[in-house]
Amino acid sequence: MRPFLRYISSSSHRRSEQSPSETPIASAAEAKGKEKVIADAASSTKTAKGDDTLPLLQRPLGVREKPKAKTKSWADTKEKFIDQDKRMEERTHLAREATRGYFYDLNATRRHGGKTWIAPKVMIREDKALYFPDIQGTALAGSEDKVHTTNLLQNKVSVVALLTTRISEIQTAQFLEPTLQAFSSNPLFQFVQVNLQDNMLKSFLVSLFASGIRKKVPEPLWPTYMISSQNMEYLRQPLGIANKHVGYVYLVDPKLKIRWAACADPKSEEVSALKTCTTVLLERLSKQQDTQVESTPESAPPQETPPQSTAP
């Protein structure tokens, strides 16, 4: 009879025979790995929170060349294709637009209501500020002649609101309420509204129902309310228009320079900043006009001519 052999696994003994220094090393490596996971999670959480914080406006808005009140002609279009710098600018614009989806602006309104930057608390310096571009359109007052913002904004402190949707109208109204209450009666101040509809069908409908807009807009504001179908694609980046569905507000000085800007839903500090900056510009313009009046020499009174003698 073959004897019964009992086999005992030695794996447990081998584990127990391992040097005692191996266990602390393994546990230290495991703890280090856990710490790294926790650190990565904290870092990602911090990054996500940082992404939710909107940045301040980082650059002056506007165009570098002083605008002119003229309708774009064939000569201007021809020059655009001949000029090397303008062709490169065109290529850069097309490349940027090619990366944007059709519903990009609409989807962007889900974050912060379409707000992409926060307005500065102080004005942009005059020597750093850029010009507000020329936009042409039809005044709500009913005149068939084209109106240009270049002519409209000269020699006054202007708050310009770009409107595209009903949401943008509500947003700009919230921005401007305190400023309009304070300065609407000031002759050096004006409120300019530009209803931008670069879609031809929508532009036609807005023009068709202009009488309905007149019922909503107070009559004193009709001369400074424009309906425009101008293509703004090449002005979106200079004006900081990251989302065409929200409203944009610009404070423009008498020299056509953008000194302050804001977008989308207003914050309380932005509303206060607009009023403060407008006050500063109006005070400067008023002092400048007073200085010009004082420096103008008074005209001398007309000298009386002695009566001529009628005696022979």
From TrEMBL:
Source superkingdom: Eukaryota
GO cellular component: mitochondrial inner membrane
InterPro entries reported for this sequence: ATP10 (IPR007849)
A single GO BP: mitochondrial proton-transporting ATP synthase complex assembly
Family matches, as Pfam families: ATP-synt_10 (PF05176)
Disordered, as annotated region: 1-54, 288-312
Coiled coil region boundaries: none
Compositional bias per record (Polar residues), positions renumbered to this chain: 288-298
Protein name: F1F0 ATP synthase assembly protein Atp10
Species for this entry: Lentinus tigrinus ALCF2SS1-6
